Amino acid sequence: VLKGHSDVVCSVAVQGDTIVSGSRDKTVRIWNATSGEEQHVLKGHSDRVYSVAIQGDTIISGSDDKTVRIWNATSGEEQHVLEGHSDAVCSVAVQGDIIVSGSEDKTVRIWNATSGEEQHVLKGHSDLVSSVVIQGDTIVSGSYDRTVRIWNATSGEVQHVLK
């Protein structure tokens, strides 16, 4: 049992021996899965952390504070604050140099993980975007509008709407 958060844990991610958790207590925590030790408490969000993702030495978090944050998993240091969403960030995903975020503002956003620059704003959902994933050149988003949308990660164009 990994104890440390003072409120509901909304999201977890795992990579090898590393577990990342995001909570309503506004923190992201990094744990060693083998020892159960808390390695870092990442503070920076001003509201609930709804989603976390990890890839290599990079942790991504999305929050009710409308931001996506990029952290160094080893040092625990914040590297970028990605601003652009006008409402809570519900879901984040990362692949290579691409970060994807889905928000209550009904958009999916594509960001460059190195620079923190926004690449595309994907519009089409008519309600909050609750889940995003990226695989290869494809982004898939799920929404409270009861649809799944498939997008091209490079162009930002919608390819299919699954109803």
From TrEMBL:
- Which keywords annotate this record? Repeat, WD repeat
Protein name (record): Guanine nucleotide-binding protein subunit beta-like protein
Where are this protein's WD repeats?
Answer: 2-41, 42-81, 82-121, 122-161
Question: According to the UniProt entry, where is the signal peptide?
Answer: none
Native source organism of the sequence = Hondaea fermentalgiana
Q: Which InterPro entries match?
A: PQQ_b-propeller_rpt, WD40/YVTN_repeat-like_dom_sf, WD40_PAC1, WD40_repeat_CS, WD40_repeat_dom_sf, WD40_rpt
Q: Which PANTHER family match?
A: WD REPEAT DOMAIN 5B, WD40 REPEAT PROTEIN
The uppermost taxa in this organism's lineage are:
Eukaryota, Sar, Stramenopiles, Bigyra, Labyrinthulomycetes
Which SUPFAM superfamilies has this protein been placed in? WD40 repeat-like
User: Which GO CC annotations does the UniProt entry carry?
Assistant: nucleus; transferase complex
